């Protein structure tokens, strides 16, 4: 549970920074999380979103998604061998 609270707090800081149009310091936890979001570094899952010619591939991180959502946790833990090979369009 403490890990979830830590990740939730970091996400709130990043969202607040975006909404307030402030930029967190690059070496802060929020700054590093924002860099992961912007760069897609070390992303281990990708989502294909959009329709027609407007499709876009969005990188994400399983660990963050699992802690934020029981649905993602169930998807990723169901069968990791098949989950890595599966592709889902939203």
From TrEMBL:
Regions that span the bilayer: none
Residue ranges annotated for the BTB domain, each copy included: 43-90
The entry's keywords: Signal
Signal peptide positions on this chain: 1-16
Protein's UniProt name: BTB domain-containing protein
